[in-house]
Amino acid sequence: MLGRLEPHKISGQRGMLHGREKGRLVREDIIRVLESSPADTVLPVDFSGIAFIDFSCADELVSKLVMRLSTDLAGRHIVLTNLSEEVQENIAAALELRQLVCLAESDRAVKVLGRLHPELLKTYEVARKRGRITARDLVGAFGLRISAGSNRLTKLSQLGLLARAHGEAMERGGRHYVYLPVQ
Amino acid sequence: MNPIVIATPTLHAPTVDGLFGTVLGAISGVRPSSRAPIIIDLSRVNFIDPYGMVCLCQLCRHLGNRFRHSRLVLPDRLDVQAYLARMGFFDQVAGHLNLENQQVSAGGGRLPASSEVLLELTSVRRQEDVLEVTRLILDRTRVILREQLGYSDRDVGKFATVIGEVCHNIHDHSEDEGVVCVQRYTSRDGRKYAIIGVADLGIGIRASLAKRFPHVNDWPHYLAIASALRKDFSRYPDRGLGLYIISQIVGQYHGSLDIRSGDTRLSVKQRARWVQSSPFPGTQVSIRLSQKE
Known about the structure:
The complex is a heterodimer of chains A (183) and B (293). Chain A is an alpha/beta fold. In chain A, 43% of the residues lie in helices and 26% in strands. Chain A has helices at residues 20-35, 55-69, 85-97, 118-130, 135-142, 146-158; strands at residues 3-4, 8-9, 16-17, 41-46, 52-53, 76-81, 101-106, 109-114, 162-169, 175-181. In chain A, the strands form 3 sheets. In chain A, strands 1, 2, 4, 6, 7 and 8 form a 6-stranded mixed beta sheet that branches. Chain A has a two-stranded parallel ribbon with strand order 3-5. A two-stranded antiparallel ribbon of chain A has the order 9-10. The longest helix of chain A has 16 residues, at 20-35. By secondary structure, chain B is an alpha/beta fold. Chain B is built from 9 helices and 11 strands. Chain B has helices at 13-27, 50-66, 78-86, 89-93, 127-149, 153-174, 204-210, 221-228, 242-252; strands at 4-5, 10-11, 38-41, 47-48, 70-73, 98-100, 115-124, 178-186, 192-200, 256-269, 271-290. Chain B has a 5-stranded antiparallel beta sheet with strand order 7-8-9-11-10, with helices on both faces. A 4-stranded parallel beta sheet of chain B has the order 1-3-5-6. In chain B, strands 2-4 form a two-stranded parallel sheet. Chain B starts with a strand and ends with a strand. Chains A and B meet through α2 and α3 of A and α5, α6 and α9 of B.
């Protein structure tokens, strides 16, 4: 299982986050925390103090943060916690427009914000149930060929929903990668 | 110079184009140093919606910036004057020209039951103003939007988002200050809706885009407006989603969107229509959002 860091709580003026400049500043705060954290960890980003975030801020803060996580911050992960409906709405809208996704958690339920292909979502949910997943697991679960399963897991890893953990030797030789769900 | 009489009784998106054309045409040969006052006669006007109001504010400011002596003859109807007063119109334009035929003091009187002020004329100069406008909308209008338009908290959030985004554009793109106001109405068939009016006297959409894409300066204004509504086409790299998300939300709430910049107005209500307007500085936006079905 991936290590979970102490939540990073976000604050805004009177509980509001607005504008790209504010989004950029909060994003850079989070990046500083991520850069000083070990790889293969999940940083909960706590929005409990935020009643409203406008679209521009959501795009600057969350969308661009998710983009960084797939590039120079690969190996680090985030999950957004304690989002109100209004806050979730604008974050999801910003992610959808950029064709990105991000995990959100409230009351112990995990949700994927942004638009995710149903098959990818099902695969992620299988990974969450099992606690780990390999391409061979997808052969059994979805009837996929190994190569297709491997592509699907790579895609989910690129989207930040799975973390590639380690390679395992297979019974008949060769190795496959084990992926852990980000949660 | 004779007073410029505004014959249309209604100032809203379809008629403001004519207002600009009438006024600007009349003053085209007038020198800024002229001693003769420029007089705009609104005595026949009996309805002004938020878009009409913010455009009128900016027209007054434009005249005040250019001419030493300008006057505005207010509408004869007391209820219209009361509405202007209640919306803070007198205070907004007081520094730009003189008001005539004023029969209602600033602060106003009662409004007709069919309308309700959600946000008076509010200046947007700094980022903090955008925050304040958003906060006012969320704090003051939540109950009204819930009860009158059937909006959930999510819908109120989207409503505030639209207003915030269009105000952000003033700060980020216009290189000027702007003004915003919001009003709720009930149509004759009983349907409730809100109209948001936002206007500035800035550089306009084409000039803003041309900061990053110089060839846009050669485009007609309608093409610049259409491009600004596309995803990812902005003066700033990695942006360009604001007007797009506004248009998406307007569609979700069976509303309409008018964007005027340069000499063109784009009007979107289910379909997009281009309307020739008169050249006027800045960008002016009208957004209508209807009650939930």
